[in-house]
Structure to design on (293 residues):
């Protein structure tokens, strides 16, 4: 099976499970469910849950076990985007080519929709973890750490406090390792944990994910400068307008592109220990390097 077909199959699996988790929710206000669905099914690439599935498949075949965690990760990612777009954060009107959640539903419902997705992510994970084993509980705890004050939220705080300031390389690395990299790391590691991988393999995947997360962020920064608005689904130049620190602003566009190539190659090299089983993940890493949105 070629990469594109396998990738699309994984995306379709994620969407099917997300639909399952959100169907028949008749005991909740219709408006909040509509707002949650509006952003959750807004055409996201499902990169993080696909990464988790692929990581799991390095060790086990039956991905049913990992799907509650993959879907929970996508819910957490989506909640973060809803909140990022709010006037108090990035004040964005467009996301993935259509109006952002707060433009459609109002700020109050958008805040609650983000809260609801975060809470429902843990409800989804923990319902599965309790019914399974210690390793799935460990995976849920790891995702909680990656999405919390020591991970994504911590990185967002650094990002906000760094606006209109020039920061050094160490702060930049901490910012993006947490803000963007933590959820990517969660995708790679939680898949391995759910599959019962040994500590050596988990450590190897953590190093892979650190390089992958760096590559992903650098690519985002480059696209904000050079991207095609029609493909990105949002205006370019937002980072400059908000005076955000990026790899392009710190190193320049040419060096940023070199760093993108370097981190991508490091990530792929770390997968060599898994042999042919890592072929999808290698292609996946290249896909992120070459993406246009």
């Amino acid at each position: 099976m070629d990469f594109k077909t396998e990738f699309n199959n994984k995306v379709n699996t994620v969407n099917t499970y997300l639909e399952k988790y959100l169907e028949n929710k008749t005991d909740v206000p219709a408006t909040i469910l509509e707002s949650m669905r509006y952003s959750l099914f807004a055409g996201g690439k499902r990169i993080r849950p696909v990464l988790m599935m692929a990581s799991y498949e390095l060790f086990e075949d039956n991905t049913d076990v990992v799907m509650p965690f993959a879907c929970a990760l996508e819910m957490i990612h989506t909640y973060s985007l809803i909140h990022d777009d709010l006037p108090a954060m990035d004040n964005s009107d467009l996301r993935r080519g259509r109006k952002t959640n707060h433009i459609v539903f109002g700020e109050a419902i958008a805040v609650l929709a983000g809260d609801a997705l975060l809470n429902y992510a843990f409800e989804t994970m923990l319902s599965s973890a309790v019914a399974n084993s210690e390793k799935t509980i460990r995976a849920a705890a790891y995702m909680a750490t990656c999405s919390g004050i020591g991970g994504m939220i911590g990185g967002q705080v650094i990002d906000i406090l760094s606006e209109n300031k020039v920061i050094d390389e160490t702060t930049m690395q901490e910012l993006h390792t947490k803000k963007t990299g933590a959820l990517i790391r969660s995708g790679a590691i939680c898949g391995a944990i759910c599959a019962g991988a040994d500590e050596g393999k988990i450590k190897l995947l953590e190093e892979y994910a650190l390089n992958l997360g760096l590559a992903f962020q650098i690519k985002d920064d480059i696209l904000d400068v050079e991207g095609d608005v029609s493909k990105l689904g949002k205006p370019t130049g937002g980072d400059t307008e908000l005076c955000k620190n990026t790899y392009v602003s710190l190193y320049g566009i040419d060096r940023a592109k070199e760093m993108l190539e370097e981190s991508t190659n490091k990530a792929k090299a770390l997968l060599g220990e898994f042999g042919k089983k890592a072929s999808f993940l290698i292609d996946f890493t290249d896909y992120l390097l070459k993406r246009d949105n």
Remarks:
- The chain is about 70% helix and 0% strand.
- The beta strands are 94-95, 98-99.
- The longest strand covers residues 94-95.
